[in-house]
Acetyl-coenzyme A synthetase
Amino acid sequence: MDRITVSATIRDTAHVTAEDYRRLYEESLNDPEEFWAHQKERIHWFTSPQKIKNTSFSGDVSIKWFEDGILNASYNCIDRHLPEKENQIALIWEGDDPADDASVTYGDLLLHVSRMANLLKSIGVKKGDRVTLYMPMILEASYAMLACARIGAIHSVIFGGFSPEAIAGRLDDCQSDFIITANEGVRGGKVVPLKANVDRALDILEESYGKSVKKVVVVYHTETETACDPDRDVNYNAVIGTLEDTCPAEPMNAEDPLFILYTSGSTGKPKGVLHTTGGYMVWASMTHEYVFDYKPGEIYWCTADVGWITGHSYILYGPLANGATSLMFEGVPNYPSSSRFWQVVDKHKVNIFYTAPTAIRALMREGDGPVKATDRSSLRILGSVGEPINPEAWSWYHRVVGEERCPIVDTWWQTETGGILISPLPGATDLKPGSATKPLFGVQPALVDAEGHFLEGATEGNLVMVDSWPGQMRTIYGDHERFKQTYFSTYEGLYFTGDGCRRDEEGYYWITGRVDDVINVSGHRMGTAEVESALVAHEQVSEAAVVGYPHDIKGQGIYAYVTCVEGCTPDEALLKQLIQWVRSEIGPIASPDFIQFTPALPKTRSGKIMRRILRKIAENEYKNLGDTSTLADPAVVDSLIDNRLNR
Ligand code: PRX
């Protein structure tokens, strides 16, 4: 499809026009000090920073923004909007059941967050402590995050789909003594036993790591009773009414940690990505306002879960820093029907809607009917995030959902980047379906070849960032060495994103996907190494290799090649057991779509698994395997192809 030019209606009221974009982008590169000294004003500082940027991608890699500034993220999301926005709705909650909804004003948000903050203090949480959240998409999840920020505790949110094993590993990694959870979550009519998972995680924490936590706060979201350890568990609903409803916002240095969020890499266990306070807040606020062209009074809905970075930056911190009304959705796109998203849009008169390509593709498969049964006339801007969006899905989203009226902002970014780095701006950028288009202010992308040489003009290569931006992660919690190794050692002095990318003649960026051993399943990021180590932890498995393959709905699916131990004859029962095993080791999002049992894996003579070949076979491209001359035993490949799963 051709380019779609900026609509006059959008442009005439937009925060940023094409002319503004050119001017400000240039200014942000030529004079970052001046540009960010101005942008920092969007945040309330108890002490305004004098030092703006102090960053180095070389040597020990040190990233500091606004380093002498003092602020508080919760204050910026709540108090600073008062009393003007006392009665404006801050958060709308839409339950899994269409009959359930609620909303909270900025005035009420202050009370809820202050009480939660006082509860945390009363159980012994102090500034700098790590508090783990394992929550469903309920208002209390946002109270908990903001309460941590209010008292200077560092939250570590774990997505509700992760298993007890995964929770235990993360609790151990950041030495967290406190957990906030709910008795149960509900999604698509199904119950998620969150508290039971936490209890199991705590058993594992003790058995495998010899550790325990001090307190577990339990929010009762459903009627179901759960097991309770009276010395350890605190019933939120029972105590919250007894707590003071004021709590001062702790003055935090701009570089004090705000949160840790675990994400997968190509090797090893998940990394605790650490974000700090000042730069992150400036970035979340600026990108939310410009990318979504947010105007006061608009209803904004990001469908992500707060367990992912998108939920952190674009349900909570960005929108609330801007005094927006942000919608939080507990449910799923197809429950009770495939019209659900659009019914919610109509019910709450949503103006800006931000979701993932996997949801678009799943809904597209149901045809236009469920969309057309709804009105959607409130919609003004549509957004996409998490994985490349194929032009077909893009066009359907644009034509059917947005009725060709709403620009689509295809936003490229990562857990590590804190917020959006490459995206159209609705009033400034002509759109090309499938392209994340242009860098935001202060963002300097470049494409390099395998040796790190810069590639100019229209070309394809690996995507790096040449310089820092305020929202960038600062380190991997507790492992700065791994931080340097992961992001700054592939190309000296450059931040390596792990993504491949094409740039066209007009300087538009087209992300092609990961070039490392990370796969993206339904927008969920997964390390193939993690799934492999889960598989080999099973007693019948001797070796495993996991690769991604193209999947119509999920973007990528998980294909596992498994070699069993001597004497084991793999069968249907073992296959089912292994899938269940991975679900319990990591979580349902890591379930392999296919497991191919094989007597051996293709290896080089030095014993390295040749993943390139495994990828090709999984993609059904086995006729085009490339160079196989370094294989130790070429017969292995023939046998893999002969026995490849019939798909
Ligand atoms: O490969 C890119 C893909 O998602 C990766 C980051 O995943 P995560 O840290 O989980 O963050 C997801 C939400 C920001 C990236 O390295 N990705 C994200 N957005 C896009 C994308 N790929 C193409 N287009 C996008 N808009």
Notes: The CA atoms of residues 91 and 326 lie 5 Å apart.
